[in-house]
Request: fold
Amino acid sequence: MRSPKFIAISLGIFGSLLLMGFSALSLDQTAPNLPLEDDTATIDCSAQDHNRHPDCAVSDQPTWVAVPAVETAPKPKAQASPFQDSQVKAQLQRVADMYEYQSQFPTYSYPIDAVNVRQFIPNRHIPTTLPLTGLGLGDDLSLELTLNKFQFFWGESIEATVTANLGEDSHITHADFQLVTADGKAIFTQGVAQNTVLAERHASTQIPLSEINTPEEQDFYVVAGIRSANQSDRFEIRTPLKISHNIGSVDGVSSSYIDGSHLVIPVEVSLKDGGYYLLTANLYSQTGEPLINLNIKGKFSAYDDTIELKAHYSALSAKQDEGPYHLGDFELKQLPAKPGAKRGYGKVPDKTFDVQGYPFKDYDQSAYVDPKVEAKVEFLRTLSVSQG
Reply:
């Protein structure tokens, strides 16, 4: 199953193709022909002063003088619409099919599976890899930097590991780690001595955020520099992360209930301030199979102690699982109300909670319909069958 992001990118691509099609159609309007003129003219030298007119011959006989002809602009060839290509039509049809399938589900209750669930697990750090090509060292050499997670709170420790693939005998002889701000200012440096990484291709350290005193910022980088036994140069790699103060927490899950077409799951929260928040979590089967990604975005006050996630019947029935379920992979994020406004993350439990399920017959089984999506699907199908 393709992710919604894939569909959004595909639509952008075919939107560009559509603009290309319109541009191609405009070329059918060729420039009007310029008026034709005689390409020769005569001068009667008998009536001219030979000394003043250079085109007159010594004799008084008239002479033909060539005048450059005015050339008509060549008519451009009409270009066919890009949507007449059979491969493009087939791609449009496939995009329409996938988009139509995914449009059966609201964005706040979207089915997931074992293939794409990693896209919906928050606070997962994706290792940064730096290929060392073009340095005369070999095409398969690289560095990799990994953190234990992506988002941290002040007071926690960052676990960073750098791995070197620099060919034979490439064990690290020295490594140093820095925490730098977005503008490049180093606010922490930690060196790793040779004897701790002897004969190893990786080096690790912990960066204690409790020992760092700096104004709150959201964007930071961990920078790792290494030297190896078989290379004279120092190599450096960096990876992004976020550090914030705690803006609240997810404390638990209350009893679920049915409301029309939805399974409503109240999530217990504590918010330090009112504002705009995003809460996400993943619903799993009793056996651990990923079922649905749930999310809600809205304005909440510091007095709100629950935020309700809603699983739509269409998504539950597509997974053919009536429950009970497990709910986990939480993320609580404060969103800026305007550019530059306060933002941050909440602490979430590193476990799952039990959620009661209900028979499908107890739900309002009306299909989810989004008129805007239906119009887009119809438009894509029109393009895929157009004859031009």
Observations:
- Residues 16-69 have pLDDT under 50 and may be disordered.
